[in-house]
Design brief:
globular; Rossmann fold; about 280 residues; alpha/beta; 2 domains; ten-stranded mixed β-sheet; 9 helices
Length: about 280
Amino acid sequence: MGYRTLTTIIASETGLRDTVNAAISFARQHDAHLDVCCLGVDNTQAAGFYAGAPAMIYQEALDQARAVAEALEAQARDILRTAEVRWGTDSAVVTLGGLGAYVGLRARFSDLVILPRPYGHERGINDEAVIEAALFDGQAAVLVLPEGLDRIAAFDRIVLAWNQSNESLRAARRSLPLLKAADQVSIVVIDPPTHGPERSDPGGLLTQMLARHGVRAEVSVLARTMPSVSETLQRHVTDQDAELLVMGAYGHSRLREAILGGATRDMLEGLKRPVFMAH
């Protein structure tokens, strides 16, 4: 198992160069093909328009979105042109309502999606929608990058968050190539349930499974001493001087749309180091 097809979705000019360069460095490490998809998102809302207005407004909005997508693709191609990796680019115009279907389709056939942090200066609803679509519609593993990171080095020290959930198990399995290459993996369990199936040996079965893949892992059981689980995790990552956090991505349904849950959103809002997520 390895990462042979990588995808990054660009929906704004903010951080474009850093994200593409970081994806290139990861693709080079893993001898992978990199696809960069550039989106122009039409956020026009039809409600409240007077009769006859929507057609004109829609056309103008579509023209603007197309210009944005083509400009983003041109910038991405300028960066990729000298990259020593296999790559391809694409541009598309989507409505905010149709963004999930497009991103989900592209993400579904990728081994890993590399995205910038969706929160922060000059970030907005489109960035959050992209990561939600990759995780929930595409069911893809996603590597989320902090601001300013333009190169991904080898992850020698990794923290793996474990809470016995399906999401955290999927994250562990999909990150196996990274875990196997790491020098140190710390499985962290925060406030394990006293009556759960792993009450006598938190993280024991996961450690055994990983060991059979050659992963050198140890378990840390922590009490939640910070106001939130995400803050406790972030402090442990800092204490371990880890370069990557692996965790499950959690969400809930809004009508028929999955959106990021509070704990996942908190982690991404305070992101200082790369986070590998899977739903």
